[in-house]
Each structure stands twice: as structure tokens, then as C-alpha cells.
Amino acid sequence: MTVQFPNESPDYRAARTALLRAEVDLRSQIEAVAAKRRALPMGGLIPTDYAFKGLDGTARPLSSLFGEHDTLAIYSLMYGPKATGPCPMCSAFLDGMTGQVSHISKRMAFAVVAESNPERLSALQGQMAWQDLPLLSADGTGYQTDYLAQSPDGDQLPMMNVFVRDGDDVRHFWGSEMFYAPSDWHPRHVDSIWPLWNLLDLTPQGRGDWMP
Length: 212
Hints:
The protein is α/β, with parallel strands linked by helices. The protein is 31% helix and 17% strand.
């Protein structure tokens, strides 16, 4: 099928056709990387069944967050006990996830944890209109440090981790380690599931140096 839009020039069509070939190649590469990801062997057992706290203060062990699913993704929100507000980048990401979580939950479990107490997180949930996000306190659990979402000096870091239920065991499967990889750009470790950046990449201006 030959694709053409109204009033486009031959130069545009030639450049766009070359770009299309690159886009198709990129899609193939994305599929190949996804296949490698799916083929990962199981990671390590979780060292403890971290007792997160719900917004009402009730303990929620990590193993209970799977619900009816065998896969659980946990995003670590940068909102530590000394923060006056949540990380703007994390907030933009979670604003997008809020609209998708009802669909995501049909296939897997998803939760957001932060190193703040339940009272602060409850207030934040109302402030940000994140009522649909399962928001939990990791305060005092060691989870953030163990799974690379908190530095040794207490700085909060925006990690995504995926866990798998294997019988009675829970194992780590994947983490957004690209956050730690050397790069000339912002780490972009969760960009593949962040509509904001993917849409901006389709424009003449691109991302530029703008941040949420």
C-alpha cells in the first residue's frame, strides 16, 4: 500500500518513507528486547515479605498484593518523610497510570509505594486525585533500599520492579535498572510505559528540555 497525505512534496515522501523503515526496524527491535525480557530466568527470592501499610494503617504484606494474579509491578514514588511534595516527574507518570490501572489490573497487579507514613500518603492521594492507585507506605520495611529505590543516605529513587509468584514463593523478575546505566539523556528507564514522552517524540519540537 502506498501512503500519501494531501499536498506533501516528493522530498517529504522520500524522507518519511526512510523514517518508516527505521520505525519498522525499531518496532522489531522492541519486540526482540521484549522477548529477551520474557525469557529471563526467575530472579532472587524476596528476602522478607515486606509489611507495607495501607492508608488506614493496616499491614499489607507484599505477597498479598498479587490478588488473583501471579505478576505484580511496584513503582516507587519519590516522596520521602522530609519531602514537601511528591516528585513532579513521578507525579506526571502516576497521573497517566491512574487512568490505566483499571485496565492493567485485568492482567496483573500494580501498586505504588513510598517512604512516607500512611497519614501523609492518604493526604497526598486526595490532593493528587489518585484514588484509583493502590498507594502503600514502605516506611520502615527496607524494601526501598533492597530494591534500589533509596540510596544509602536516604535519597528516594523512582524504580519500577516486577515480581512473580512462584508457588508459595515470591521472586523478583525485572527492575528498571536503566536508571543506573550511563547515559547522555535523562535515564528514561520507564519511558516505554509513559505516554507523555512517547507523544512528544512524534512532534517537530520533540521533548526539548521541558520537564513536568
